[in-house]
Each structure stands twice: as structure tokens, then as C-alpha cells.
Specification:
The chain is about 65% helix and about 0% strand. It is built from 4 helices and no strands. The protein has helices spanning about 10-20, 25-35, 35-50, 60-70.
Length: about 70
């Protein structure tokens, strides 16, 4: 086989990027949830272990997530 006839295939990473480029925002969020399910569950357990969510506002929850992720 002549090397000039050989068509180089894109890398697996490049193929993945191309496939992700065509996904909607909702599809990307679902993929994120799928791939990071365990990490997200662990994070939620860490954040909520000493919290009464009945009294927490949405802003309180967002602040707790940010504090846990970014230690701010």
C-alpha cells in the first residue's frame, strides 16, 4: 500500500469533540450527569450531611455547592 493513498483518520479525541459539538445544551448536561454521577452524589452527600434543606433557600444551596467546590 502506497503511503500517499493512506487517509489518516482523526484521533479518538478529535472524533469525540466533533460528536459533542453537535449536541444540544440539554444533551451535554445529561452526558455530564451520566459521566460524573458518582462525584455529584458524593458532593451532594458532603454538602447536605449537616443541613436541614427544609429551611434552605435556593441561594443557600448554590452557596454551599460553590463553597464545597471552590473552598471560598
Amino acid at each position: 500500500m502506497n503511503s500517499t493513498n493512506f487517509i489518516q483518520q482523526p484521533s479518538a479525541f478529535a472524533q469525540l469533540v466533533d460528536q459533542l459539538r453537535n449536541k444540544s445544551e440539554a444533551e451535554l448536561k445529561m452526558l455530564y450527569l451520566h459521566f460524573f454521577k458518582i462525584e455529584l452524589q458524593n458532593e451532594w452527600n458532603t454538602i447536605t450531611k449537616n443541613t436541614d434543606l427544609k429551611k434552605a433557600s435556593e441561594q443557600d444551596i448554590i452557596h454551599a455547592i460553590q463553597k464545597n467546590r471552590y473552598h471560598s
